[in-house]
Amino acid sequence: MPALPIRNTIPLMSNPWIAVGALGVVSVLIPLGMIAASSLIRPRVPEQGKTAVYESGEVPTGNTRIRFNIQYYMVALLFVIFDIETVLIFPWTVIYRDAVSQVGLTKALVPMLIFIGVLVVGLVWAWRNGAVRWVKPTATERRQTDT
Amino acid sequence: MNWGLLQQANNSTNGSGNGTNATNASGGMGGGEVQTLPDTLASLLGLGDGPLVTFVMGIVAAGLVASFLLTLVAVSGIWGKRKITAAFTDRIAVNRHGPFGLLIIVADAVRLLSKELIVPDGADRPAYDIAPIIMVSSALLGFAVIPMGSGIQLADPEAGLVYVFAVASIASVGLVTAGYASNNKFSFLGGLRAVAQNIAYEIPLVVTAASVVIFAGSLRMSEIVAAQSATLVSLGPVSIPAWYAFVNPFAFVLFVAANLAEVGRNPFDVPEAPTEIVAGWQTEYSSVYFVLCYLSEFIHIFLGGAIIATLFLGGPAGPGPEALGFVWFVLKMLAVYLFTQWARSAVPRVRIDQLIEIGWKGMLVLSFANLLLTAVIVGVAF
């Protein structure tokens, strides 16, 4: 595989990801440092009841690790699709102006229109199937929770 | 054939980008690269090149940037927030400690750090501790590629814009971890709401940013800033620069609204919603962990402000010499912060189901309409 020509123009020292990695180290060290500083000056008075889970002052009932209707399962799937779509849109936006001047508006724009159109059809389908709708409990369920 | 086109176009973008860079770069290294802060420090100290020097100087530069951000958060989060809310509600707020009550910052920082750390029963222990660190790190990491003016930019990778969005959304993982690990029902609800909200508004945010990239033709942050330095309209002595907020105001409004949701401020502060679910995902966090949660929220607000300033408000551009760029940049960030606090005082919260509907049925459709309209207009007019 031939070496990419762009590699030769960028000297090693200005590889930007080294500095990004440095910030990564600093951005973990700062919270760790604050935790360490706090552990030096804060009191520790273990006591029963203090560690009870907060439920507006009442005695906590039941566990939190339960089955729960998160409502947004379909929405999360939609997100994955559209997130990948944005990844595919970005290269197109970068070259768009050059592409228009080289191959003309139709050739540069129409494929992307078709691509987004397919996904919009998908969104409309999900929308009409109620993926985005808030699922209300049925009447019988609601009566049970009220009493 | 397509790949050839892509590479060709890419090369030509790089060529033109390097040309425009020279106007923006303070030092202008060989090859047209923008001189970043680690490089500047290395050349100031007379150190040579090499990955190790860059890394050490990167640590120093990152420490400087992070310290500045922490100071900014301390002033705006502890003192400014109270003063602004007080001004909106016709009160005085802190005024006893030092001038304008500014010393409350020191007092509050010490007070919060010296609180007892109470870990709730049944907390999922490593996850409970890791979540605040994830949130703070993700917010701080975003600042690596932000050009803050006066030569203050840690790194300038080619994929800068994508990188910012990528690391900023790691915070969602922290939010849902915090919500789940706390073993609290309010936290659990808050964590789920946070992730639902972030995924609903992430796509409008990114797609709107893509419409800016169509104009700029690059993902490199310094080139996006440089592309905005041209003059749009001259009104006598005043010349309005071609900031994308003026070029494409519709995208600007969309982005600001989506950003409010992304940082979880009113009217989209559903994940915390103090009147509904206590404090949402941070209900069970106390002491230094609470400080870290609070810190991450404010750094995220400033990161959002930095992205808005870079993409839409010309980055560090402003009247006066180029050395003042940093001041202008901070002012723009603070303006966005002020806007979030204004919204906090003035706008009621939307309900969670309304939030999802606004995100998926409103903002998403509008952002795609904006992208396509921008593409058509750019293709026809330029």
From TrEMBL, chain B:
Membrane topology type: Multi-pass membrane protein
Cellular component, GO, one term: membrane
Subcellular location: Membrane
Keywords assigned: Membrane, Transmembrane, Transmembrane helix
Transmembrane regions listed in the UniProt entry: 52-79, 130-149, 161-181, 201-221, 288-313, 325-343, 363-381
Phylogenetic placement of the source organism: Archaea, Methanobacteriati, Methanobacteriota, Stenosarchaea group, Halobacteria
InterPro entries: NADH_UbQ_OxRdtase_su1/FPO
Region of interest: Disordered: 10-30
Protein name as annotated: NADH-quinone oxidoreductase subunit H
Bias-annotated ranges (Low complexity): 10-26
Protein's organism: Halomarina oriensis
GO molecular function, one term: NADH dehydrogenase activity
Organism superkingdom: Archaea
BP GO annotations: aerobic respiration
Pfam (any one): NADHdh
